[in-house]
Amino acid sequence: MLVLRQTIRHISALVPDQWKRHLKTALLEEPDTEASLRRMQQLAFNPVVVIDVGAYIGEWTSCFKRIFPSARVLMVLPTCANPQVQCTLNPQDRPSKGLFLLP
């Protein structure tokens, strides 16, 4: 199983994101966050504010903002010294895009 995981990581960079989502849901029966959020949108879910606890690099928030661009997001991180967060989320863009980072 370890060899399989290592192989998947190496190949992952070559596979488009859309295919990755399909493989995860079809083969690994892993829930698809984007599909779930889109389904919620179809059911008239329209959040004004959400809280992303454990935001890390902002992957969930980025997906959420693509589907609900007008919603505001409070991102809560367990540590403020994560260099990846600083790269992924531009501090000047956060308030204008409704993103607020709380370390």
Number of strands: 3
Which strand order do you get reading across the main beta sheet?
1-2-3
Q: How large is the radius of gyration?
A: 16 Å
Binned, the helix content reads: 40-55%
Structurally, how many domains make up the residues? 2
Concise synopsis of the structure shown:
The chain is of the alpha/beta class and 103 residues long. It folds into 2 domains: 17-45, no CATH class; 47-103. Helices cover 45% and strands 14% of the residues.
Q: Would you write up a description of this structure?
A:
By secondary structure, the chain is of the alpha/beta class. The chain has two domains: 17-45, no CATH class; 47-103. The chain is 45% helix and 14% strand. The protein has helices spanning 2-12, 17-26, 33-42, 59-67, 83-88; strands spanning 49-53, 72-76, 99-102. It has a three-stranded parallel β-sheet, covered by helices on one side. Helix 4 links the parallel strand 1 (49-53) and strand 2. Helix 3 (33-42) runs parallel beside helix 4. The longest helix has 11 residues, at 2-12. The relative contact order is 0.12.
Topology:
Blueprint lengths: L1 H11 L4 H10 L6 H10 L6 E5 L5 H9 L4 E5 L6 H6 L10 E4 L1
Helix pairs in contact: 3-4
